[in-house]
Amino acid sequence: MLAYFGLANAQLEQAAVSGTVWNGVTTSAEGRIFVNFPRIEGDKGIRIGEVLKNGKIIPYPDSEWNKWKPGADAAHKFVRTNSLRIGPDGLLWVVDTGTPSMGQNPLPGNALKLISINIKTNTVQQIIPLSGIAKPSTFIDDLRISGNTIYLTDAGEPALIVLDKATGKGRRVLENHPSTTDHLPIQAEGRIMKDEKGNEVRIHADQLEISPDGKWLYFQPASGPLWRVETKYLNDGNTSEEQLASRVELFYKTPSTGGTAIDADGNIYLSDVNKSEIIRISPEGKESLVIKDKKLLWADALWIDDNGYLWIPAGQLNRLAGFQGGKSKVKFPVVIYKMKINAKPQRN
Fold this sequence. Notes:
Blueprint: E1 3-4, E2 13-18, E3 24-27, E4 33-36, E5 48-51, E6 57-59, E7 81-86, E8 92-96, E9 113-118, E10 123-129, E11 140-146, E12 149-154, E13 159-164, E14 170-173, E15 187-188, E16 191-192, E17 205-210, E18 216-221, E19 226-230, H1 231-235, H2 241-246, E20 249-252, E21 257-262, E22 268-272, E23 277-281, E24 287-292, E25 303-304, E26 309-314, E27 334-340
Parallel strand pairs: 1-24
Antiparallel strand pairs: 2-27, 3-4, 4-5, 5-6, 7-8, 8-9, 9-10, 11-12, 12-13, 13-14, 15-16, 17-18, 18-19, 19-20, 21-22, 22-23, 23-24, 25-26, 26-27
């Protein structure tokens, strides 16, 4: 039986609601809330939004970035955003997969990209095209930043990507390695997820976190397990694939995972989408239960704010039509919850 972690009276608080499925949330030190809509229900318009104090969600950084239509130029518009987070540099970073819809390949040109936004001026600061490090079925899933280095996961063509933030140049590493390849079926709400053709859903390199001291990169396919490798080997372009592979360690046998976060003490918080719970894994590899609640339907990318709250977007992704025989079972509104865990965020 799992040990319990956290306060006895800790409970979920409703932070925001939406009529469109979301999969990510991030907050600024000033309390601004930004959310990601991954364009998996057809074209509902908004990709990145800011949740105002009255609950209204507006396009961010403006409506023009959120107005891409098939056939239009995609270099300065969001095609299909999949993740967002405020980085240690204070900028809002967004991953645009460049894929028009779920299961499709990135569009040619600069549709596949990273975008950084200055939230003080609400303007785009940098666009980093990623087509140069992409493969035909690349699906850039998420990012983490340490200093001048950006780490990315490719969930479509199994690999990690190590990118120089200043130059935009990147390298693919651990391609098709067991640590980046999904070998297990993803389970959610007690069922193996299958696509419209009846195939088991496989999401390769997905979640990733950096230890507070910057020494380790933790990463995993969506169905686990969690691996780690020292960043000094990842960052050294002279490290051969064989040498790098030999440095990869199995860290923990995690369950089917929606999202993760790491605190300043190196504890990793992870959502088990099969059991609707959040677990915490210590730096020593010990697991404890944070919360179990049936409302946590596909808890996705987690976030720890500056006030010690864990933010949990419950997007119900497994209930979408594409995974339910063509008929959506999502019950709206979808909700972002938060709960007090009294942990400090890892912002390095």
